[in-house]
Amino acid sequence: MDFPIFHLDFMGDRLLIAIIAVLHVLINHGLAVGFIPLVTWIEYLGFKKGGKNAIVNNEWDQLAHRLMTVAFIITTTIGAMTGVGIWFASSLVNPAYIGSLIRVFYGAWFVEWTVFVTEVVLILLYYLSWKRSLASIEAKAKHIKLGAALSIFSWITMSIIVSILGFMMDTGSWVENKTFIAGFTNPIYLPQLAFRTPLAALMAGAIGLFLTKLFTKNGSSFQQDSSKKIALWMLLMLPFTLAGALAYYFKIPELMIGNLPVAVGTMDFQSWYDLLVKFIIGALTTVLLIAGTVYFKPKLKIPTIVYILPVIGMLGFAGIFERIREFIRKPYVIGNYMYSNTLRKEDYPLFKRDGVLAHATYSPVKEVTEENKLVAGEQVFMISCSRCHTTRGINSVVDKFENMYSLKEGEKLNGDLMKNYIKHIENARYFMPPFPGNEAELSALVEYIKHIQDDGTPIDHQATSMR
Ligand code: HEC
């Protein structure tokens, strides 16, 4: 609690991070990690088809160049900004957690930076030297090697981050021995990498197939040939994606058992779990059908709109997968170590003894009194609930209580019931961390929530007017 608390009360902090992060993952996987090897491969095919008198086959080379133009523009703008944006947004919302990750992954973070800078330099070189690569056979061969190097570096960038993502879900033996190696080689790391790698390639294939349909002349033999190659790419990646998804999928229940001791709560997760299964089946079947048709029946006329289906399927699939990954680590932001409310598990006894306010550097009040009850309650809300709930916005705490007690319009919340609930909140719903504060802070929190219900004063206005 050494940091000020940033809070977006209308949409919630979770949504802010989710929008930036999901956008980033879709671009990173679909247009960088999986896409660049695909473009390099198409460029290579054009090189091979060049024949005796030409350096390349122009149609193939132009297609590769056009695909790369799309990737270049999007990855170097929205892709790069959202990538950095994730760290800005999550440092704002949960600085303690980013602080912990930096401490554990200190060296890896530095390596990540050098790899990322290399990736950016390579992408600039690869794209901007395309014209010059057409000057000679040697230049083209070199250029293709550059594409291969870029593919490898984009993959390494992702593979370091995936270790950190795995660590957030399950810290493995790190909780006991606190070594970097234990953190880096956490149990979720390899299954997740085994899933993300072919997933990225498959997403890229879906996007590539769609773009190729747009970039080539309808019905031309080149359209058939190039689409057939991309369909082959997709068909080859499909079994690996499925195998990776299963490896990862079977890690999830294991993790749930470790992290989520309360059986009732799992019902809530169940619906997402079912959705994931439906999405795995639905998205992969769509990809199989369309890629299979393009490959085996290249002459069949398929309307452009149909090519969007695998793109939507793959993006939706990846999006849902990210949502589940985020959800199942709750109530922790770092498995078994730090709760999503930014408080460390091992500090709880201290908070129970002294109260959380006493340890909250930026709280204007350090102890609950009769006069400061609402200000104190607001602070307790900010510390223990605001990372996931707003007062009146999305996932509003007042709405949650009103719905849970099935209150009718105008009915008031019952403070005693709420106190009892919050005291054992982690048993009621496994995804919420235990309440960290003492009795007086619990009363103040309940007073504050009731106050919000009464007159709905938004939190920002309160914070400035009451201090
Ligand atoms: C780690 C995130 C997180 C924290 C911290 C958190 N909650 Fe929740 N809470 C949730 C989620 C997620 C839901 C379910 C939202 C939904 O309906 O999908 C929820 C639901 C609830 C519900 C409704 C439960 C039900 O069974 O209908 C109440 C009441 C509630 N929260 C109160 C609180 C209070 C009070 C605090 C602070 C002491 C708090 N929560 C802290 C994530 C959190």
Notable traits:
467 residues; two-stranded antiparallel ribbon; 19 helices; elongated; disordered C terminus; binds heme C; Cytochrome c; transmembrane helix; Cyt_c-like_dom
Radius of gyration: 26 Å
Main sheet, how many strands, which sense, barrel? Answer: 2 strands, antiparallel
Note the beta-strand portion.
under 5%
Q: How many domain regions? A: 2
Mean pLDDT: 90
Helix amount:
over 70%
Transmembrane segments: 15-42, 63-88, 108-128, 148-169, 189-211, 231-250, 275-295, 302-321
InterPro entries: Cyt_c-like_dom (IPR009056), Cyt_c-like_dom_sf (IPR036909)
Domain Cytochrome c: 372-453
Keywords: Heme, Iron, Membrane, Metal-binding, Transmembrane, Transmembrane helix
Notes on the protein architecture:
This protein is mainly alpha-helical and 467 residues long. It folds into two domains: 13-339; 347-466, Cytochrome Bc1 Complex, Chain D, domain 2 (Orthogonal Bundle), CATH 1.10.760. Helices cover 70% and strands 1% of the residues. The chain has helices spanning 13-33, 35-48, 58-93, 95-104, 106-128, 137-169, 174-177, 180-184, 189-215, 221-259, 266-296, 308-328, 348-354, 373-384, 397-404, 415-423, 425-428, 439-455, 459-466; strands at 332-334, 338-339. A two-stranded antiparallel ribbon has the order 1-2. Strand 1 (332-334) and strand 2 form a beta hairpin. The two termini are 20 Å apart. Residues 459-467 have low confidence and may be disordered.
